[in-house]
Amino acid sequence: MKKVLFVLTALCGLSLGAFAQSSSEGGKWNIGLDAGLPLGSLHDLYSTAIGASIKYEHPVATSTFITGSAGYQRFFIKGDVKDALKAVGVDKSGVGLIPVKAGLKHYFNEGFFAEAQAGAAFSTESGGSTSFVYAPGVGYTFSGGFEAGLRYEGFSQDGSNSGMAALRLGYRF
To answer: In whole angstroms, how large is the CA radius of gyration of the chain?
Structure first.
């Protein structure tokens, strides 16, 4: 867990330095909580996913932003799978990922938006690997900066694809 916090702190620090000039030109920060339901092969092993993320949005055209985000997601192992792992001497409640993504976000009328991001998801597990991650989604930004979004987050590695349906509740400032 200390490694995860260190990596998130480092990413946030690097992001602040990289976007310091941009934020004075109208960029927006966005912090949020994520909850997901694993689908496909992920659903066979994991019951839910919970996490948090920070995102920076830099305007490039009217209502269009380039985004960069980093976060942490914890996938919780299903009870029967956890029991089977314990039977072979593995005591584990879940696995962690650090997704780092870049993308585009476009606002339509009123606060509705569509967004697409892609990047890498780094495993926090010993011996874990990195996978390609992509996340198309839609959402709404309410007056006052609160935001709700739905997305599909897909993971691809060595020809294998899996994913989750996710809800993100955030605050844009």
So the answer is: 17
The pTM for the full model equals 0.81
Q: What is d(CA 87, CA 105) in angstroms, rounded to the nearest whole number?
A: 46
Q: Which residues pair with 69 in a beta bridge?
A: 55, 101
How many other CB atoms are there within 10 angstroms of residue 165's CB atom? 15
Domain spanning 2-172, CATH architecture: Beta Barrel (2.40)
**76 vs 17, more confident:** 76
Question: Which residue's entry shows tokens 């496909």?
Answer: 40
The pair of structure tokens assigned to 100 is: 């780092």
DSSP 60-83: EETTEEEEEEEEEEEEEEPHHHHH
pLDDT over 90 at 128, yes or no? no
Chain centroid, CA 125 distance in Å: 17
What DSSP designation does 142 have? P
Length reported for the chain: 173
DSSP element (H, E) containing 30: strand 28-39
Q: How far apart are CA 98 and CA 105, in angstroms?
A: 21
